[in-house]
Amino acid sequence: MKPVPPATSLRRAPVQRRSAERLTRILDACADLLDEVGYDALSTRAVALRAGVPIGSVYRFFGNKRAMADALAQRNLDVFTERVTLRLREAAGTGGWRAAMDAVLDEYLAMKRTAPGFSLVDFGNQIPVGTRDAEPNTRVADRLTDLLSSVLNREPDEDLRRTFLIAVEAADTLVQLAFRLAPSGDERVIEETRELLRAYLARSLD
Fold it and tell me: 5, 44, 94, 176: most buried, per Cβ within 10 A?
């Protein structure tokens, strides 16, 4: 089962497995409908219908559709962290920080291409569509700092957090450009992004 967002993003945290499964169905339905109709046409009633739950079940967890999109973004970040962690575990420390950085970028691109609703909410910075918010990238950078500090054999101090925040901000902007240029991401822009990240991170991590 997919991760359940933390209680802070929910009106009420699921206690029993049945409630957690219902919450998962609600978020899955929200993600599918975001791809089909977009955020503006999304409604809690349509989500309840798609999820096969009473409308009251949706309001048990969420006050409105924005809260639902925020919870989906949090779940996306948790799934992303799990995927990167698995890649790093499979690599067993080989390849150094460059391989770790490739894993981070590859998993982000994979979710961008395949995860329902991700093109609109990713980690929380595009709702309403087109708006920007620094907080999600800060959360991503903090998560990566904590995750990769052991790979780097570095303390997760403020310098490392700042380095990853700058890398995340740069990658976010360039990946958005790549997906504006091509539905699956312009490969030339993606490769330039990879090279830019390697050149920038080498200054601090080599």
Answer: 5
